[in-house]
């Protein structure tokens, strides 16, 4: 076999292998969020209540990675479960009450890197009548080898954990006031 023919065969095999691993459409967040990392859990000891979560995103899609579309139909359920899993969350009333607006949630891919972003606006009120309004950006990144649902899920979970840590820190501060 000539070197040119061997090269052409190798390239065709590589392309077929990569095309077979990538899917046209995957679910971005399809499972219940994993346990909150200890670092985020330590930050929250104050009881809080989530009064409302509004989804203000313009589309259910979470973006695309190469040719793979990332579906976000289950995003709001997944996001709500993730916040409700935070230590201190109380379904009834609590000293701190939150209203949350999800402004954006998306994934980007650049070569072998995945990056997920979740942008929210949180309106918080404490028992002392103190009210705050703040924007948060949860960010997660990881290597992208196969454009798989598991890789995409892991990057969104990292972004959610980043948000949980930031919001938890501010809940603690609001409790101290």
Keywords:
177 residues, alpha/beta, Rossmann fold, four-stranded mixed sheet, three-stranded mixed sheet, 4 helices
Topology (elements, then pairings):
Blueprint: H1 3-21, E1 25-27, H2 38-42, E2 48-55, E3 64-65, E4 68-71, H3 75-84, E5 96-110, E6 113-125, E7 131-143, H4 149-176
Describe, in plain words, how this protein is organized in 3D.
With 177 residues, the chain is α/β, with parallel strands linked by helices. It has a single domain (24-176), classed as Rossmann fold. Helices cover 35% and strands 33% of the residues. The chain has 4 helices and 7 strands. It has helices spanning 3-21, 38-42, 75-84, 149-176; strands at residues 25-27, 48-55, 64-65, 68-71, 96-110, 113-125, 131-143. The strands form 2 sheets. A 4-stranded mixed beta sheet has the order 2-5-6-7, with helices on one face. A hairpin with a 5-residue loop joins strand 6 (113-125) and strand 7 (131-143). The longest helix is centred in the last third of the chain and has 28 residues, at 149-176. It starts with a helix and ends with a helix.
Largest sheet: 4 strands, mixed
| Rounded radius of gyration (Å) | 20 Å
Structural class estimated from helices and strands: alpha/beta
How much helix, percentage-wise, in residues?
25-40%
Kindly, what is the distance between the CA atoms of the first and last residues, rounded to a whole number of angstroms? 77 Å
H/E element string?
A: HEHEEEHEEEH
Quick summary:
The chain is α/β, with parallel strands linked by helices.
